[in-house]
Amino acid sequence: MVLTPLKVAFQQFLDSNKLPQSYIEIAKRYFDPIASEIANNFLRTEITQVIGINGSQGSGKSTLADYLCMSIKQNFEIRTISLSLDDFYLTKKERNQLAKNIHPLLAQRGVPGTHDIELAVNTIKSLASGTKTKITRFDKSIDDRISNQVEMSEGKIGVIVIEGWCFGAEPQFENQLITPVNELERLKDPDGTCRRYINNALATSYPKLFKMAHSTIMLRAPDFDSVFEWRLEQEEKLIEKLKLTQDRLVGMNVMSKEEIFEFIQIFQRITETCIERMPAKVNHLLQLDPQREIIEYRTLNPK
Question: What's the predicted TM-score (pTM) here?
Answer without folding.
Answer: 0.90
